[in-house]
Protein 1
Amino acid sequence: MSTTHPGADLASRILPADLGSNPDSRLAARIAACREQGRPALVGYLPAGFPTVEESVEAAVALGRNGADVIEIGIPYSDPVMDGPVIQHATTTALANGFRVADVFRVVRAVAERTDAVPVVMTYWNPVLQMGVDTFAERLAEAGGAGIITPDLIPDEAAEWFAASQAHGLDRIFLAAPSSSRERLDLVAKAASGFVYAVSVMGVTGARDAVSDVAEQLVADTRAAGAQHVCVGLGVSRRAHVEEIGAYADGVIVGTALVKALADGGPEAVGALTRELAGLA
């Protein structure tokens, strides 16, 4: 009788036999370096093009220069699934102001060239499909990007992305949720590289007064499934949350609070909040 749990069988059926873990991952290296310093990686999210492409470039650079280790550059999209009202408003504004998908590479390049933070793109999958998966991956790598976070792409449907990510040395960041089964967590852990994005709450993004108590268990379960690094997002808005989550996760992801700071006070406000979140203020 086999002692292999069902998730391993699912992963072997779905994932390419030659799918590697990206040994040259800049994301994994940065997260490991943060852990050696006794702290979690600070991961900040901002949408490209908000309120304009120029201002989004400067805001992303401010993130990187004030304590963010990893920067997620979001692609505004007309039909968001997991974005709360603050980010929805920002992305709607960016689209109204003329944002185009190609603009994201300009923001990524600025982060890569003007800061020491590791830039990644966070996007729904349709914009990548529209450009062409390999073309998008090639342009992202050329701009200095390290990978893509894919909220609505599951490993079961990611064959083209697996090929492109390996061809261009990019990380694949998939999501794990409190509702994910052991079988699903096993698949995500094996498919991902860089880190797994652990969604701490069921629902849309947004700053919250308290972080869900299921987050710690989700991190433990995802690690048990084989994930090398697990970062927690959704609901993080203040330094106390960073410290709380950092006690058990490899990285802490902040989005809505930073987007609100940008909307209210521009890139300078983003820099000030980043320093506070990083414990540098």
Protein 2
Amino acid sequence: MYMAALVGIFVLPALALAGTELPPSVSSVVTNLIAALTGLLVVVGVAKYVDRRPLTDYGLAFAPSWLKDFGAGSVISLAGMAVALPVSLFAGWVTISELFSGGAGANVLPLAVAFGVFTINWAFVAFWEELVFRGVILTSAVEGLRSRWLSDRGAVVAGVVASSLVFTIGHSPGSMGAFGFRMVLGLLLGAAYVWTDSLALPIGLHFLINFAMNNIYGLSNVREAPEIAMLIRPAFTGPSQFVQVYGLVNGAAVLSVAALTVGYVIFRNGDLRSRLSSTYLGGE
């Protein structure tokens, strides 16, 4: 099943889009729609034939509080990532080259349409990655580790670290900076999952971190992607260790998201204890 997931997530989209010249937003959304459907099918198979548990055990128990947590995660990421651009502007490492930029290229969509498509795209990304990396991998890791070597608390911590490592490696980090950035992000999303026993908060966090970096604040434009629609299009001139996609400024912004998340969880729960389901974690 895991091999099927890899094929569906990484191979099928490439085959489906081979030779096409779609707008970047459309290409991305098609790729991640295929990945999301594949991820969901694999998780359904794992739940039914391997884990023999309902999908709700993977953090998909929808309730009114689910939308509240999703919304909170989205607002937290939007606010937390907003600190990156002012820091770079104050330091003189960036200038704003364009506002409400629809992108340049022969096949780009109008700004409003491209923004709508990218919104759907990042929602697909957040859904399937959180379902796979947190819902299935973290859940299974906690259950397996607890039954063999560790206490409940130790299994939760080890499960968060293990799933974050798989998440990081799965994104093929090409540098130590990228590895560290992805690892911190994975730890944050894993913690959000175990604190709430739901994928709502991590999906909301993940969705707006991606959307904010790529299309709202243009924090990934250090890659100089003129075809991507951006609400703010910055031009970065500062030292790469600070302003690159996985540089220290964006890393600090993710830490601000983490701080806001901790505050929200304390407000929500009253503490930072794990809320993982007793179905697979007995004593927490």
Protein 3
Amino acid sequence: MSDDHVYMTLAEGHEDDTRWAYGTGFEDPLHGVDTTVPDGIDAGELAALCVALADDALVSAQRLGEWVTRAPELEEEVALANIGLDLLGQARLLYSRAGQVDGTGRDEDAYAYFRDAGDFRNVRLAELPNADFAFSIARLLVLSSWRLAHFERLAAHPDPVLAAIAAKGVKELAYHRQYAAEWAVRLGDGTQESHRRMRRAQEQVAPYLGELFTAYDARDEVVAVLRQVTEAAGLPMPVYRPFPGSGRDGEHTEHLAPLLAELQGVARAHPEATW
């Protein structure tokens, strides 16, 4: 399967002139949206869902930001940074919605900067160190495919705010998935060394697939994408198994706390500072 065929088939249903991350429009996705929690929706459950999705995005954005000045090419550095900015934008909207409905009135900064690692609800795959470029690509392919499937369904959520956030995110995540798929094929079908690294990256990501499917069952969608990409790249299909525990329950690896310390350091050192 050619790289172009992978692009065309994964892009089906997301036809758009947009190919750049952070280029999906700058209109406020919540303009004119009623922020009242509709009858029949549990506000606590809605807030918890928003926080979990926001934590996934924030932690992923922080890891992607680590590629700035370290990516193999300037173009890829900019692309990864912009994908991170897309996710950061999603996190801000989701944290704000959580603060509106959970009764605390917390703003996005309170969620991002003033919670400890045990209070975060992101999946563990997001918090793992970057390792090499191939690993970051393998992780991005999985997480973007999983999140895209989730957001496509959330676009019909009865909460109009969450639905609007998800609808905007679908356009961004479709690009993220495509970017990762193209690089996965390029590396897998490239040199002997790039193939070896991409195969190793798949093996490193595979143990965490079970957690994703437990946190939100998008198994069919994610497996279909991985099968298509691995076939084009000449790579074996990753084997996934049930994963014990979950970041959704506050169970994290030893890597999250130092990542948050770097993210939160300035805000905690100067909690009352303003621009």
